[in-house]
Design brief:
Blueprint: E1 7-10, E2 13-16, H1 19-26, E3 32-37, H2 43-53, E4 58-63, H3 83-92, E5 97-99, H4 103-106, H5 125-128, H6 132-147, E6 151-155, H7 159-171, E7 177-181, H8 201-206, H9 209-222, H10 228-241, E8 245-252, E9 266-275, E10 278-287
Parallel strand pairs: 2-5, 3-4, 3-6, 4-5, 6-7
Antiparallel strand pairs: 1-2, 8-9, 9-10
Length: about 290
């Protein structure tokens, strides 16, 4: 296949495929705000771009489907690649630079140096996707080094990922502010996700049930219930009764993602479950003191 042009100007937005040219483009860019993505963008991504505009002079989005974070039986090959459509959306969102490298550009040799994320990365989604957060942390570390942002915006839908990235930036002393963006949702409550396109029409109608189950637990916690295991098990049973295959429902501390300890007043309720062939994740933050 022919190599893409190293720089493509799309209505004052630069689409760049190489690290060297990106570095040259950002040399006089001022304060950079960064939004890393895997493409196949939706309205939630565009909200991240709007937030990024508030934190920098130049907004950079990356589009890269990272092979390191996919397991051998996961959907790396079929994950949607929609670069042309994504660039059109980013242009309307006011993005200044799109960095869309090839796998060979990001990994010119086998990646033997990888980032080991904190132990919590082996729980929750990490327990079902071994090595996933190691791949996420490694590619984000590389992107931070390449882009050199002052701020980077991540959505709360991937709550565990957000916690891992916060630890990465803090413990490796990256001079980048991690900005957390609220989850963007459809009118029926379903969290916007690129993988929602895998849902059939029937499954799409059922999909909001996961968030409803997490919100039910959130309400119960606000009402003072503290039998965490019973609340989790009840939600799992309710979802399974509707045909879901549940990986987990968990009540955790929102800062550490460890099980709540002592007289906790703040929680995050997290869940991951399969609806047919589609794995959905979601969460609901809780402040029991309000």
């Amino acid at each position: 296949m022919p190599r893409p042009n190293p720089v493509l100007k799309v209505n004052n937005m630069d689409v760049i495929h190489t690290i060297a040219i990106l570095n040259k483009r950002l040399r006089e860019a001022g304060k950079v705000a960064f939004v890393p993505t895997m493409g196949n963008l939706h309205a939630g991504h565009l909200e991240l771009m709007r937030i990024a505009r508030e934190h920098g002079d130049t907004v950079v989005a990356s589009i890269f489907v990272n092979p390191l974070q996919f397991g051998p039986k996961e959907d790396f090959q079929k994950y949607p690649r929609t670069l042309e459509e994504d660039c059109a959306l980013l242009r309307t969102a006011g993005c200044d630079v799109v960095f869309a490298p090839s796998v060979e550009e990001m990994y010119p040799a086998p990646q033997q140096v990888e980032i080991i994320p904190p132990p919590i990365a082996n729980e929750l989604c990490g327990a079902f996707r071994p090595g996933h957060f190691q791949g996420v942390a490694t590619v984000v570390a590389k992107l931070f080094n390449i882009v050199q942002p002052a701020a980077a915006v991540f959505g709360k839908k991937d709550y565990q990922q957000l916690c891992v990235i916060r630890a990465l930036a803090q413990q490796l002393n990256y001079p980048v502010r991690i900005v957390a963006a609220e989850t963007s949702r459809a009118e029926d409550g379903l969290a916007l996700s690129s993988r929602n396109t895998y849902l059939s029409a029937q499954k799409r109608q059922e999909a909001p049930r996961l968030y409803q189950a997490l919100k039910t637990i959130a309400h119960q916690l606000q009402q003072g219930q503290r039998d965490y295991a019973a609340l989790e098990e009840s939600a799992c049973r309710a979802l399974a009764a509707q045909g879901w295959r549940v990986d987990y429902v968990a009540i955790r501390d929102p800062h550490t993602l460890l099980p709540p300890a002592g007289k906790s007043e703040r929680f995050v309720v997290l869940g991951a479950a399969w609806l047919g062939v589609t794995r959905l994740i979601d969460n609901s933050e809780v402040s029991a003191s309000t």
